[in-house]
Amino acid sequence: MISKKVNKIKTINKIQDGKITYSDLNIPAKPLFSYRYRIAGKPDYIVENNCQYVPVEVKTGNHNLPQKNHVLQLAAYCQLVEETYKSFVPYGVLVYNKSKQFKIPFNPNLRFELEHSIKDMRYILQTELPTRNHNDQNKCRNCSMRSYCEMKII
Fold first, then answer.
1. Pick from 55, 124, 141, 148: most CB atoms within 10 A?
2. Helix, strand, or coil here: 11?
3. How many percent of the chain have pLDDT more than 90?
4. Can you tell me the distance from the alpha carbon of 69 to that of 73, in angstroms, rounded to the nearest whole number?
5. What is the C-alpha separation between 14 and 43, in angstroms, rounded?
């Protein structure tokens, strides 16, 4: 059941028209899983409009352009939605700070980049220890892996 709170957030963030069929914002949702890539994730929303399912990811920060890591995260959600709903996903939406929206096409180039990134990450995990790639305390503070990380800076 999608709450009034989620619909209010949808309005505030100017999320496209359509029915919210999935939300991870009001209560934790069940993760989606890709058997093809063996990845899992939970987009903030999935909006269904005209028989198309579109993942939506809401981010903090004021960015004039979509951030590469956010685009790849959204691409993973597009893949997850395609496999879960067995329906072509033409694009996903990134929303920054309730004001800027970017419609990111899930085109062949992004699909290839997603697959390549997943393969790279698996290779690194199999051949070497992962290392922290930043010195940003905010990233560490908000990281979902913080409690397990031996390289955290705070």
1. 55
2. helix
3. 51
4. 6
5. 16
